[in-house]
């Protein structure tokens, strides 16, 4: 069953990445990666958060978002860079230029810090509204930047008498692939996580390793597979993958947290507050610090193999701290 669900995720992720790559021809790499792909690959986590909030398991609800950010901003981004800058890629690059992602980098840092500060007194309905507003702001800024890019692209195509956009048939095919891939990931993510956890337990893997290492890898598998497939396609695919990493982490810091808060309120009442516990607070601080550190090389605007190896080291450090925080 584990291999069967992994195969389902591989096929779904291929459809999702292929559809996203071709949709970028109409809406741009960054907009597709930031919005469509980010939300699509976050859907399994949204399902986990809603289910956990309904039962009052707030540590699971917030832990899902925190674990995702730690994992993807270090190991996830590291693997993507190693693939994109070596012969593992079909069109390897010396480095990936992330200068155009200034807005994403700033907003990711800002939302990470705001999320940590707001958690000091726990999360309530006011924080839910705040996070929803931040997510709306991100969508607006991404849309405005996309419109500006399309205007510049339209000018170039008119100047050189080029076809301005893909055919309707091409667009429809890409959208169908993207939708089928999204549905496949949403359906297959939870069974894959459960079967992997069951297999790990059968093999005698300790609970802390399961919680700190195996579960986050399993939960992020759809996004990870999509990133690897995109990174292998060269410059355009790598750009979408970077946009997906940054966008999905901003989604986690805004939309995912607001869903957790409003889901808790819908089941427990308006006065419901997600409490601050010492374990969650320490994890929040750890993930915020690691996110800021992981963003430092990005602000230099060029990411290469060396950056990927540094992020891999940062992942190991983060895992070590998580073991300490969990009391092992």
Description:
This protein has helices at residues 2-27, 29-54, 58-84, 102-118, 125-160, 168-202, 207-219, 221-231, 235-268, 278-295, 305-325; strands at 95-97, 302-304. Helix 2 (29-54) crosses helix 6 (168-202), helix 3 (58-84) packs parallel to helix 8 and helix 4 runs antiparallel to helix 5 (125-160). The chain is built from 11 helices and 2 strands, in the order αααβαααααααβα. Helix content is 80%, strand content 2%. With 328 residues, it is mainly α. It has one domain: NCX, central ion-binding region (A middle domain of Talin 1), CATH 1.20.1420. The longest helix is centred in the middle third of the chain and has 36 residues, at 125-160.
Output the keywords.
328 residues, mainly alpha, A middle domain of Talin 1, 80% helix
SSE topology sketch:
Elements (H helix, E strand, L loop, with lengths): L1 H26 L1 H26 L3 H27 L10 E3 L4 H17 L6 H36 L7 H35 L4 H13 L1 H11 L3 H34 L9 H18 L6 E3 H21 L3
Antiparallel strand pairs: 1-2
Helix pairs in contact: 1-2, 1-6, 1-8, 2-3, 2-5, 2-6, 2-9, 3-7, 3-8, 3-9, 3-10, 3-11, 4-5, 4-9, 4-10, 5-9, 6-7, 8-9, 10-11
Count the strands?
A: 2
CATH level-two architecture: Up-down Bundle
Instruction: Specify the structural class.
Output: mainly alpha
Which bin fits the share of residues in helices?
Answer: over 70%
Terminus-to-terminus distance: 31 Å
Q: Name the average pLDDT.
A: 84
> Which value, in Å, is the CA radius of gyration?
19 Å
- CATH fold call: A middle domain of Talin 1
Query: Biggest sheet, strands in spatial order?
Result: 1-2
Can you count the helices? 11
- The CATH superfamily name is NCX, central ion-binding region
């Amino acid at each position: 069953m584990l291999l069967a669900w992994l195969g389902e995720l591989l096929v779904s992720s291929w459809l999702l990445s292929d559809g996203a790559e071709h949709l970028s021809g109409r809406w741009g790499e960054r907009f597709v990666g930031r919005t469509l792909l980010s939300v699509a690959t976050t859907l399994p986590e949204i399902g986990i958060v809603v289910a956990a909030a309904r039962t009052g398991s707030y540590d699971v609800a917030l832990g899902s978002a925190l674990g995702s950010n730690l994992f993807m901003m270090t190991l996830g981004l590291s693997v993507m860079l190693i693939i994109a800058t070596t012969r593992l890629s079909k069109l390897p690059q010396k480095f990936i230029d992330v200068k155009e992602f200034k807005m994403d980098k700033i907003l990711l840092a800002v939302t990470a810090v705001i999320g940590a500060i707001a958690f000091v007194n726990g999360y309530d309905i006011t924080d839910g509204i705040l996070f929803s507003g931040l997510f709306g702001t991100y969508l607006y800024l991404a849309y405005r930047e996309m419109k500006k890019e399309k205007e510049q692209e339209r000018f170039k195509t008119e100047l050189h008498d080029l076809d301005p956009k893909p055919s309707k048939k091409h667009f429809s095919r890409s959208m169908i692939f993207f939708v089928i891939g999204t549905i496949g990931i949403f359906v297959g993510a939870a069974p894959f996580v459960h079967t992997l956890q069951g297999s790990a337990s059968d093999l005698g893997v300790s609970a802390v390793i399961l919680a700190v290492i195996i579960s986050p890898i399993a939960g992020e598998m759809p996004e990870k597979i999509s990133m690897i497939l995109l990174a292998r396609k060269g410059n355009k695919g790598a750009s979408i993958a970077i946009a997906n990493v940054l966008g999905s982490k901003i989604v986690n810091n805004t939309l995912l947290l607001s869903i957790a808060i409003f889901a808790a309120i819908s089941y427990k009442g308006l006065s419901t507050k997600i409490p601050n516990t010492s374990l969650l607070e320490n994890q929040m601080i750890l993930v915020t610090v690691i996110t800021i550190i992981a963003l430092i090389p990005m602000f230099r605007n060029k990411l290469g193999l060396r950056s990927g190896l540094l992020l891999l080291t940062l992942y190991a450090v983060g895992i070590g701290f998580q073991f300490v925080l969990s009391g092992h």
